[in-house]
Structures are given as structure tokens and as C-alpha cells.
Amino acid sequence: MAASAAKIVVRGLAKEFADRTTGRAVPAIGGLDLDVLAREFVCLLGPSGCGKSTLLYVLGGFVSATAGTVLIDGKPVGPPGPDRGIIFQEYALFPWLTVLDNVMYGIRGAASPAERRARAEALIAKVHLNGFEGHYPRHLSGGMKQRVAIARTLAHDPDILLADEPFGALDTQTRTLMQEELLRIWEADRKTILFVTHSVEEAVILADRVVVMTARPGRIKADIAVPLPRPRDYDALVRDPVAIELRAELWRLVKEEVVRARGAG
Amino acid sequence: MSAAAARPAWRALLRLRRGYSVLLVLAAWETASRAGAVNTFLLPPASEVLVNLWNLATEGRLLFHLAESLLRVAAGLGLAVAAGIPLGLWKARSRLADAVLDPVMAFWFPVPKVGLIPLALLFFGFAHGSKIALVFADALLPLVVATYHGALHTDRRLIWSARAMGDSERRILWRVVLPAALPQIFTGLRLAVTVSLLVVFLAEMVASSSGLGHVMIYALRTLETKDVFSALVTISLIAFLADWLVIQARRRVLVWHA
Predict the structure, then answer these.
(1) B153/A contact by beta carbon, under 8 A
(2) A78 touches chain B (CB under 8 A)
(3) ipTM score of the complex?
(4) DSSP labels, B142-154
(5) Given CB atoms, is A30 within the 8 Å cutoff of chain B?
(6) Cβ atoms of A137 and B180 closer than 8 Å
(7) Contact assignment for A138 to B258 by CB distance below 8 Å
(8) Contacts of A197 (CB under 8 A, 6+ apart)
(9) Cα Rg of chain A (Å, integer)
(10) Alpha helices, DSSP H only, in chain B?
(11) Residue B168 contacts A where some CB pair is shorter than 8 Å
């Protein structure tokens, strides 16, 4: 693939953090190269602390890199902006705003309040939360909160969606439903998605491509295409021989790194 | 959620209990005085004090002094809120502000503000100015400190989310950091209100020709003990009401808060 054609181009990315107690530099990412095409769904898989989230934060513009280049549409990554939406595992909804107001917060530049409201309501319907517009986040379940967070991010219509283990805190059933829902939304309006996860199953269900990272300092260990047709059928995937094979391979790769990380830690 | 069903009954019981404690104090007071346990000049019966209070109130003089005290508290507290919240936010979000404000606050915190009463009188006169200045001086710090701590611990992800939605840092300060700090700000406000009342009555006792503090000290000098107690009851009522108002406001503003 030609580097210039990629939506996101990462070259030689390194990130170090200062250890709070010793003051020494701890490498989180150590020389990482990655290309993500426009409208591609890429899952980042790797052991805890391998710098997956840090990579997302660098792409989001929240954290600056120690070395290397990060290009988005051929331009160096800038400060955070509405072109890149982010979804956190902990939802990060504004607790003082209702569901409707949280979603409306993300809507920019609409002509009138009525128009913004109408757009927010449409997004809320899209994530199946009709009837909950007036609820505050603390009255919602984890899955519902994450739906609101997704609607809020879609509200500013980002080019790129950065998802930091968004379903990691949900129970298995809710998680499955959320995966299906995310796929449905994405298949209708394909954005470039970089999705961090711990789960091999999740990566296979969602991604066009799964990037496996090494233990800290994070590098790319493997870059594996997911040759499964879309739209993905969750139930069929459970028994699909290709999917089974892929899960086994991914798990083998991740396990090596988990063991390595444990040995190092 | 089974506690929800029991809540109204429980609340009613709590309310009754609060009223009961007032009744108990009044009853003990009345009995002690009537039974002759205490000289009625030193401790006039509660009933007579309440009648006296009613007379003072209807005659209008007490209401004038009450209004004077409340005006001073409102002005001083209003200024403290207007200055304290922005200062606290600024201190939490700017390293420069933190560096500038920290030593000032460290110096200001232990100063016994009561000692400033003569200075306030000197600089701002015996009328409203000195009281407003003193209330401001005492109410400011709790508000700055509460806002600062509330703002400092704003969830980083909320700020990042706002940035990703294209918010400027200034907008984030008012739309994210301020609401996130509100629960703490209310705690600071409650403290500030209590302190404000204390300071205003004290300052009025020391040097003033109006206000409830003045009424109290004037009554003492003229040995009108019923007036002393009437002023005391009024002051207590005001303090109770002010605190209740803050709690109600908090409940309304923080409906979203667990």
C-alpha cells in the first residue's frame, strides 16, 4: 500500500513517560509503524500496558509523541479537534447533562437550537435510546452510557473514530449487543476506526484488520487481515472455520506477549 | 431501590425530629425561667422573648436592622462568590496562577480575620463598607479552596472529550471544569455563608449603628435582656434559614449528582 494513500500514517513513533517515583524515562511505545486506510476498521490488540491506548491518545492529539511522525490525511497530527472522535471505556459523559444535552454538546454549527435538537434526537434514536432523552447518566446502565457516548461522538461527525476499549467494562451479553450495534452504524456510514481491545473475539467480529502489539515498549508484532464478509453475522461467526482459525492464531500471538509482559513486570 | 419507598416517611420523621429539638430547647428554657431556677432578668421566659420579638418585628425596627445585616452579608458574599469561583478555577487550570496564588493564600489562611475589624473600620468606615469588606475577606478563601479542589480533580477524559468536540480551553473552563467542580463549590459556599453571618454580627457588635449585632450589643448595654434574646433568636433563625437555602439550592442545582 502506498503510504500517501493512507488516512493515518505512523512512522517510528516512540513515546516515553517519566516514572513518578524514579524520574526515569519509561518507554511506552518503541518505534511503531502503522498505516490505516480511509474507512478501514482496525483493531489494536495487545497485553495491558503495551501502549495501545497511548497510541490512540497521540492520534487524538491529547498526548505528544517523543519521537516519530504521525500524519493524518498527509498532515502532521494537530491538537484535538472534531475531525477525530474519541470513546473511552469509562464513557466520559458529562454527568451534569441529560442524555439529550450530552448528545447536543457534540453538535457543531447547526443553524438553530431546534435543528440541533432534531439532530440529537435522531442520533439518540440511532442508538436506540428513545425515551431516555431527559435522563442523567447516573440513571443509565453501562451499555446505555456507552450508546450515549457513541451518539455524542457521531454528533460532530468525525472522520476518524478512536475507541479506547469502549466495551471493556460491559457484561458479555451487553458487549455482544453493542458490537452488533456499532457494526450496524459503521456499515451504514463507514468512518475510519481505530479500536483498542483486549478481546480476540471482539477484534475478529469487528475488524477489517487486526494489529497485534508487543508488550511494552509497544511495537507492531503482527498485522493480520480479517477475510470475513460483511455485514458480519455474529451467530455465524461463532462457528465459521475461518473465524475460529483466526481467533486461535490471534490468541497465540497475544499470549506470547502477555507472558512476556508478565515476565518483564 | 427498596429504600425509595421508605424515604418519604423517613424524611417526615427526620423533619419532625428537627422541630422536636427546637421545641425541647424552648420547653427547657421556659421551665428553667418559670420555675425560678434562673433569674428571669438574666433568662426571661421563652414565651415572653417570643412576644417581645413579635413586637419588635411588627414595630419595624428589627426588620430594618435585619435588612441591614442581610444586605451586608449578601454584598460581601456576592463579591466573594464572584471573585472566589473564577480565582479557584484559574488556580486549578493555570500553573502561573497556582504559583502566584499559593503563597498569598498560605499567608492569608491563618490570619485571624477578626483582627482586621479595626483596619476595616479605618479603611471602609463604620457603615456598610467595613462589614462588606470583612464578610468578603472571610468568605473568599473557602470558596477559592473549594473551587480549586473541585476543578483540579476534573476527570481528564471529560476535558479530552470536550477538546475532541472542538471546544476552546476557555469554553472548557466554563462548560466542563466549572460544572464538575459544583459539588465542591457548594460545600465551600455552605461554609462561606456560615462564616459570613458570624463575621457580620461580630463586626456589628464591635462598631455599628445598625444591624442585628448592633441591636444585640445595644440591648445588653441598656440591660434589655428580652431584646438580647430576641436578637439571638433572630440571628439563629437567619443562620438556620441561610443554611437551609444553600442545601435547597444544592439539591436543585445538583440533581445530576449522586
Answers:
(1) no
(2) no
(3) 0.90
(4) HHHHHHHHHHHT-
(5) no
(6) no
(7) yes
(8) A43, A44, A45, A165, A167, A168, A203, A206
(9) 19
(10) 2-34, 46-59, 61-93, 95-108, 117-124, 128-152, 156-164, 169-172, 178-206, 212-221, 225-253
(11) no
What number of helices (H) and strands (E) belong to chain A?
Answer: 8, 10
A251 touches chain B (CB under 8 A): no
Residue in B with minimal Cα distance to A98 = B256
**Residue A140: pLDDT above 90?**
yes
Distance in angstroms (rounded) separating the CA atoms of residues A199 and A13: 24
What mean pLDDT do residues A188-192 have? 93
Cα–Cα distance between B190 and B174 in angstroms, integer?
21
Q: Do B157 and A88 touch (CB under 8 A)?
A: yes
pLDDT tens track for A98-131: 999 999 998 877 678 899 999 999 999 999 999 9
Within 10 Å of residue A147's Cβ, how many Cβ atoms?
25
Q: Which CATH superfamily is domain B44-253 in?
A: MetI-like (1.10.3720.10)
Strands lying side by side in the sheet with A8-18: A25-36, A8-18, A67-72, A75-76
Q: Are A17 and A26 in contact (CB under 8 A)?
A: yes
| Contact check, Cβ <8 Å, A81/B180 | no
B87/B185 Cα distance (integer angstroms) = 12
Q: Cα distance from A93 to chain B (closest Cα, Å)? A: 7
| A138 with B256: Cβ contact below 8 A | yes
pLDDT tens digit sequence for A218-248: 999 999 999 999 989 888 898 999 999 999 9
Q: What is the DSSP string of B3-20?
A: HHHHHHHHHHHHHHHHHH
pLDDT bin (cut points 50, 70, 90) of residue A3 is: very low
- Say what the pTM is: 0.85
Location of C-alpha cell 476506526: A193
Q: What gap in Å lies between CA B23 and CA B153, rounded to an integer?
A: 43
Answer yes or no: are the C-beta atoms of B142 and B193 closer than 8 Å: no
Of A84, A95, A138, which is closest to B164 when you measure between CB atoms?
A84
- Decide if A68 contacts A13 (C-beta within 8 A): yes
Give the integer Cα–Cα distance in Å for B172 and A71: 27
